[in-house]
Amino acid sequence: MAKNSSSAILIGVLKLQVGQISETIEREGRNLLGGGNLLSPEEITDFCLEFLQLLIELLDSKDPHDDASPQFHALEMFFNNLSRQILVRGGRVEDLVRYIQFMQRTLIEALGAAKNIKPEDMRDILLYLSGVFNELILAVFHAYLDEKERTIYAQEAELRETATPITEIWDGVLTLPIIGTLDSSRTMIIMEALLNRIATERAAAVVMDLTGVKSIDSQVSHHLIQMVRAIQLMGSDAIVTGIRPEIARALTSLNIDLGSVTTRATLSDGLKEAFRRMNLQVLPKA
Amino acid sequence: MSPAGLHLTPLGQGRCLLEPGRGLDISQRPLLIEDILERLQRSGAAVLYYDLGELPLIDEAYYAWLDTLARACAALNVRMICMRMQPTAAFGLSHYLKEGPAFETTLGLCV
After folding, report:
1. d(CA A67, CA A128)
2. What ipTM goes with this model?
3. Are B85 and A234 in contact (CB < 8 Å)?
4. Which of residues 186-215 of A touch B (CB under 8 A)?
């Protein structure tokens, strides 16, 4: 679109019908985004005015086609931020995309009311509007994906935290209850967290409680032994507790040798063993 | 004169501390072991603490060096205790060790 012809026509149309255009997109904004209290009426009004202002600034720029221009970037960022705001408040990306399409339609309808626009100018304007709005929809999707990724990352971090509840139950004694299945990636996460805790707390003993482990296979038992070995290499004592009879049976049928691993029946027995190794004795109050 | 990167300090009570420096060339294994054992014997050491605090990773070659040194120490009735192994090193080593090491481990030096 040549700046001097088509953009000037579009600016003219916008300026002439700004009140009507603003009112139409505001009304639709209230329908689509105001219903679930995603945006207040004042926010929608501000949003519409800012959008029209940014669009006019883009059309008035040196090259309205330049998608690297500050004006284009400002418009993209405006929709990017709006998208985040709506998603954070529990809105749907589809509604925002529909709203952007509605804005495009409103502008095209406003062009229909304008007189004396040559067909070739009209074609240029339509192509231009289609290009700009497609970019804006893409900006909205980018924001949506970024937000989703952030949510997934936060959930993963939370899961990692809850999957490795390492507690210093006594000075220099760590406990790690393992619940569920130990796969390779979980073992790595647990090991990394556990070994770092041993180093920072200078833990002399680690009691790993397997009461919550329902089943075991050769891979899981391999991971378990690897974990015990890493703890021992750090210079700590590893004590495994809560091995269920079915797990013990599975271990023997898998030919897993737990000879180098200190085992105790319950977590409390494991704790007593840790105390014994640390020359500690817990006595009832006299 | 001791080989480069080999810092062996008697701690008293039959204990010695070996702090490997960056210049320690473990490819010279026989010479290093002879030198260490001679000095251990001279100081009447019963325990050798090997400080691994500055090693973020222990590869197979380095592990082989530690293993050989520990076995050689055992021949002189000297216990070799590796201390301050870093989490990253323990993590990596636990992946390829098939059996327990020839040396003992501890978190740090007990004074």
Report:
1. 12
2. 0.87
3. yes
4. 191-192, 195-196, 198-199, 202-204
Q: Are A208 and A176 in contact (CB under 8 A)?
A: yes
What domains sit in chain A, N to C, each tagged with a CATH number?
A: 5-159 (1.10.490), 167-277 (3.30.750.24)
What is the per-residue pLDDT across A33-84, written as a single tens digit (0 to 9) for each? 776 677 888 888 888 889 888 888 888 888 888 888 899 999 889 988 888 8
Q: DSSP of A109-176, one letter per residue?
A: HHHHH--S--HHHHHHHHHHHHHHHHHHHHHHHHHHHHHHHHHHHHHHHHHHHHH---EEEETTEEEE
pTM given for the model: 0.62
A187 vs A263: CA distance, rounded Å: 19
Place of tokens 């260490």: B36
Q: Which residues pair with A174 in a beta bridge?
A: A168, A206
CA of B107, closest CA in chain A: separation in Å?
A: 5
Task: Find out whether A238 and A225 touch, Cβ atoms under 8 Å.
Answer: no
CB A209 within 8 A of CB A234: no
B58-72: per-residue pLDDT in tens?
A: 999 999 999 999 999
Select the residue of A203, A232, A260 nearest B105 (Cβ to Cβ): A232
Residue indicated by tokens 């409680």: A209
| Residue the block writes with tokens 């059309």 | A59
